Amino acid sequence: MADLFHRPRRLRRTETMRALVRETRLAPEDFILPLFACAGEKVRREIPSMPGVHNLSVDEIAREAAAAAELGVKGIMLFGLPEAKDEAGSGAYHERGIVQQAVRAIRDSAPGLVIVTDTCLCEYTSHGHCGVVRDGEVLNDPSLELLARTAVSQAEAGADVVAPSAMMDGQVGAIREALDDAGFDQVAILAYAVKYASGFYGPFREAADSAPAFGDRRAYQMDAANTREAMREAELDYAEGADMLMVKPATCFLDILKTLREEFDLPIAAYHVSGEYAMIKAAAQNGWIDEERVMMETLTSIKRAGADIILTYYARDAIKLLRAG
Ligand code: PBG
């Protein structure tokens, strides 16, 4: 028999012992819940590939946000499905755009909630790309002006935080400058600093009807193979005035998350995206995995890797479980 002086199992014997030595703990305050606003009234349209997630008309989203706040959700991330799309994505920066309406309604129904708006054009453009398209190419600099307009109009509606996700170079700087010029120096920027061109956004594109009509997003979103480039993206957003940095998707990029956490002193967010949610749901619906266990294991791994904030469609379920103890 080996001389087993060291026995790590001593600290795993009971649940109370395990709780005492647990290194990472999820809290209800960790989560931001993404919500999708759409036109109409009394609309609650479930997204087929994302059971439990709905497209919600403004009246419904106001109610849903209030219920989430009641449950203990601290923040929401808003996306919009406009009634009409055009080349320039004008629904993104229209004063009465769908997200702007939703922000105003939620301000009333859930005053304390932190309202974050996704600042991008892809849900609003007829071609489904995140910027201005000319001759089959997504142009960088002309897109900046539209993204800045979008951010300002979201701030005017009452957003606390804008979250640029188009992956255009200089978008954080352009938005910071436009917000400050418009008197919104208190509106924060959560930068999708490290956003990979990912297959895990599939269900979202169904939810937001935002799949690109031609080509893909690889000419602006990042290559999943790159770490050093991720640091460069984060440094640029930091220098341009980002208040928080995000990594997206989460679980395939925990190494990136961890490195960002070590290198930067800003709050770091991770987006557990639609495909990551859909995979757990689908396997659970088949009876192949235990949904609650896999959900909590996944969210814990994201926090353990260094996320201060987790954006997840599971926010409510996780909070309910945490509250149940
Ligand atoms: C908009 C945007 C996307 C997501 C968040 N903001 C889609 C995309 O880049 O294609 C994905 C979120 C998810 O999959 O849950 N650019």
The CATH architecture assignment turns out to be: Alpha-Beta Barrel
Question: How many beta strands in the DSSP annotation?
Answer: 12
- The CATH class label is Alpha Beta
Number of discrete helical segments = 11
Into which percent range does the helicity of residues fall? 25-40%
Q: Which spans have pLDDT < 50 for at least 5 consecutive residues?
A: none
Give every kind of bound small molecule, once each: ligand PBG
What's the CATH topology name?
A: TIM Barrel
Q: Give the ordered list of helices and strands.
A: HEEEHEHEEEHEHEHHEHEHHEH
Radius of gyration: 20 Å
Structural class: alpha/beta
Report strand %: 15-25%
Q: Averaging pLDDT over every residue, what do you get?
A: 97
The CATH superfamily turns out to be: Aldolase class I
Number of domains: 1
Distance between the termini: 41 Å
Order of strands across the widest beta sheet? Answer: 1-4-5-8-9-10-11-12
Q: How would you describe the shape?
A: globular
Main sheet overview? 8 strands, parallel, barrel
Description:
The protein starts with 14 loop residues before the first helix and ends with a helix. α4 crosses α5. With 325 residues, it is an alpha/beta fold. The chain has one domain: Aldolase class I (TIM Barrel), CATH 3.20.20. It is globular. The relative contact order is 0.13. Ligand PBG binds next to α6.
